[in-house]
Design goal:
It comes from Daphnia pulex (Water flea). This is Protein kinase domain-containing protein. With 65 residues, the chain is α+β, with helices and mostly antiparallel strands. The protein has a single domain (9-64), classed as 2-Layer Sandwich (Phosphorylase Kinase, domain 1), CATH 3.30.200. The protein is built from one helix and four strands, in the order ββββα. The protein has one helix spanning 55-64; strands at 12-14, 21-30, 34-41, 47-53. Strands 1-2-3-4 form a four-stranded antiparallel sheet, with no helix packed on it. The longest helix is centred in the C-terminal third of the chain and has 10 residues, at 55-64. It is elongated and about 45 Å long. The relative contact order is 0.22.
């Protein structure tokens, strides 16, 4: 497994711009550069999809190109 993809995603995420708190749900999918998670707004319970990209993966891929 790619060690770049082993980054830990916390159970609770805070949006610094809006100060909203989100609870991380299930992993929806992953690829070579990112993982996609279901998140729930802790105040409204609205569900969204959130993608976490791994910059180191982009840098490595570009250098191999």
């Amino acid at each position: 497994m790619n060690s770049i993809m082993l980054e830990i995603i916390p159970d609770i995420l805070l949006d610094p711009g809006t100060k909203k708190r989100f609870v991380r749900g299930q992993l929806l999918g992953k690829g070579g550069f990112a993982k996609c998670y279901e998140l729930s707004d802790s105040a409204t319970n609205q569900q969204i999809c959130w993608q976490k990209s791994f910059q180191a993966a982009f840098v490595k891929a570009a250098s191999e190109g």
